[in-house]
């Protein structure tokens, strides 16, 4: 059984397919038809709902795509849908602003926009045009009516920021804490399939020993497509999102320690503090709804050759803490990938933490991504560069690419052409040529092999120009 708050009402679910998505449950079982299915892949935002979570005393709200969220992952959370916003007969300020600004046209996408706006309003004290655009970046309007929607997002801040959710926040937090305290075994089973939601890492480890063929799920931003796009069933799922401590982001004197269930949204601020170039990459890899659920651990564990974070982690010299039962081992991220979708992870072993060394003062990190769409798209190629230059000489260099081979990996020939050499246009040209020895990319619907290689070589030229600019030198020193 799982329990969550449906707005303010405790709601229990049992004896239902563990593979069911939240959107299907809302529409087919609760007959809440406000949330729509537009893409079933987390791209369009028509299905957006908001989850509330208690941090002990107060509530935190985040927008998510209900089409790729499994119902069973809601245990101990508050679910808010567009039907819940109206307070008795009074529209919520977000809804009223949409009415006043004529922000709804055909209406199909409107509930999703309203919920993204609601989450932004709850989490923002001082709105900005940039912040509004980013918050709505995961919602598509097929009538191309963005101007009145943005106007509504500005106007919704004019009334008092308090609403019925503010007034009941302490009560809501208390209810959620009571659900957590009453936890016994949290699971959902039916049709010969089971979803486990362990509360501790030890419990998670034991479940994986007992079910070595189980699939791990965190945000589900990739795995859920097996249900929605490929119509497959998975017999045993183990959810990592409730395991205490697995979603933490910890800063130590020498490194950034990220739990494998920590979302991009949670890890972003600390990562960007030390690696400013990651801000654009993280914002481009998916909408806010995706970043609120997707995890860095999942991006690595998925072992996709076009995942955005693996080349970054490889270039930064990051390590993985792998756990099996009570035993852990630490390996370099570069050694995790063996061949296409095959890793060095053993049976019943899982990624527990990701360890990223803090940058040295002389270190320069850059990451470049090419995709068919500027945002919310998979890489055709992604290059990460970590280079240390002292007195015009390259003292240390790590270069890694994704999308250029069956696994993300370092460009050893390219690195060799730069290491202990002058930081010069000539040596950059040599390194660009050497890159062809490191990779033999393929052609697919995202890019031709020739384009992949050429643009990946041009990343090096871009790196050289950026690091040699006076503006960029100032930027580097600010974050050293």
Q: What would your notes on this structure say?
A:
With 480 residues, the protein is an alpha+beta fold. It has four domains: 2-179, Ubiquitin-like (UB roll); 181-239, 2-Layer Sandwich (Uridine Diphospho-n-acetylenolpyruvylglucosamine Reductase, domain 2); 249-357, Uridine Diphospho-n-acetylenolpyruvylglucosamine Reductase, domain 3 (2-Layer Sandwich); 363-479, Enolase-like, domain 1. The protein contains 18 helices and 20 strands. The protein has helices at 22-29, 93-100, 110-123, 129-135, 146-155, 164-167, 169-181, 201-210, 225-228, 264-274, 278-284, 288-291, 296-301, 309-315, 412-418, 425-438, 449-468, 470-479; strands at 2-6, 9-13, 48-54, 59-65, 78-80, 187-190, 193-196, 215-217, 236-239, 249-251, 255-259, 319-324, 327-332, 337-339, 342-343, 350-357, 363-370, 381-390, 393-402, 409-410. The strands form five sheets. Strands 2-1-5-3-4 form a five-stranded mixed beta sheet. It has a five-stranded antiparallel beta sheet with strand order 10-11-16-12-13. Helix 2 packs across helix 5, helix 15 (412-418) runs antiparallel to helix 16 (425-438) and helix 16 (425-438) packs antiparallel against helix 17 (449-468). It is globular and about 70 Å long. Mean pLDDT is 94; it is low at 470-480.
Give the CATH architecture of the largest domain. Roll
The geometry reads as globular
Counted by DSSP, the helix tally is 18
Spatial strand arrangement across the major sheet: 2-1-5-3-4
The CATH class assignment of the largest domain is Alpha Beta
Helix amount: 25-40%
């Amino acid at each position: 059984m799982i329990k969550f708050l449906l707005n303010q009402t405790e709601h229990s679910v049992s004896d239902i397919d563990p593979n069911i998505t939240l959107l299907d449950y809302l529409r087919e079982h609760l007959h809440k038809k406000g949330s729509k299915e537009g893409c079933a892949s987390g791209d369009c935002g028509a299905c957006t709902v908001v989850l509330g979570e208690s941090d002990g005393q107060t509530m935190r709200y985040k927008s998510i795509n209900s089409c790729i969220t499994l119902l069973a992952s809601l245990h101990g959370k508050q679910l808010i849908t567009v039907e819940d916003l109206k307070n008795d007969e009074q529209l919520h300020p977000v809804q009223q602003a949409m009415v006043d600004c004529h922000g709804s046209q055909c209406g199909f996408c409107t509930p999703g926009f309203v919920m993204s706006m609601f989450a932004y309003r709850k989490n923002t004290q001082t709105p900005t045009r940039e912040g509004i655009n980013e918050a709505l970046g995961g919602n598509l309007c097929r009538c191309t009516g963005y101007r009145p929607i943005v106007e509504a997002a500005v106007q919704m801040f004019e009334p008092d920021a308090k609403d019925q959710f503010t007034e009941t926040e302490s009560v809501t937090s208390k209810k959620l804490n009571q659900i957590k305290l009453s936890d016994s075994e949290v699971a959902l089973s039916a049709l010969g399939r089971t979803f486990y939601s362990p509360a501790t890492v030890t419990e998670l480890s034991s479940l994986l020993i007992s079910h070595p063929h189980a699939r791990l799920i965190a945000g589900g931003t990739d795995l859920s497509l097996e249900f929605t796009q490929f119509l497959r069933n998975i017999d045993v799922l183990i959810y990592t999102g409730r395991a205490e401590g697995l979603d933490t982001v910890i800063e130590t004197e020498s490194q950034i320690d990220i739990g494998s269930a920590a979302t991009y949204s949670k890890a972003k601020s600390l990562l960007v503090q030390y690696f400013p170039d990651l801000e654009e990459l993280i914002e481009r890899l998916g909408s806010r709804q995706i970043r609120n659920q997707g995890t860095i651990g999942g991006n690595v564990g998925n072992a996709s050759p076009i995942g955005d974070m693996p080349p970054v982690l490889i270039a930064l010299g990051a390590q993985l803490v792998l756990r099996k039962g009570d035993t852990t081992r630490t390996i370099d991220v570069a050694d995790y990938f063996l061949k296409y979708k095959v890793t060095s992870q053993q049976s019943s072993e899982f990624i527990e933490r990701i360890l990223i060394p803090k940058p040295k003062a002389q270190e320069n990190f850059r990451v470049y991504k090419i995709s068919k769409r500027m945002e919310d798209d998979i890489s055709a190629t992604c290059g990460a560069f970590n280079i240390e230059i002292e007195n015009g000489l390259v003292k240390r260099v790590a270069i890694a690419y994704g999308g250029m081979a069956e696994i993300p990996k370092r460009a050893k020939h390219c690195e060799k052409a730069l290491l202990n050499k002058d930081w010069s246009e000539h040596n950059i040209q040599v390194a660009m040529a050497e890159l062809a020895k490191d990779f033999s990319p393929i052609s697919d619907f995202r890019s031709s092999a020739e384009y992949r290689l050429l643009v990946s070589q041009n990343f090096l030229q871009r790196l050289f120009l950026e690091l040699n600019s006076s503006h960029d030198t100032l930027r580097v020193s600010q974050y050293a």
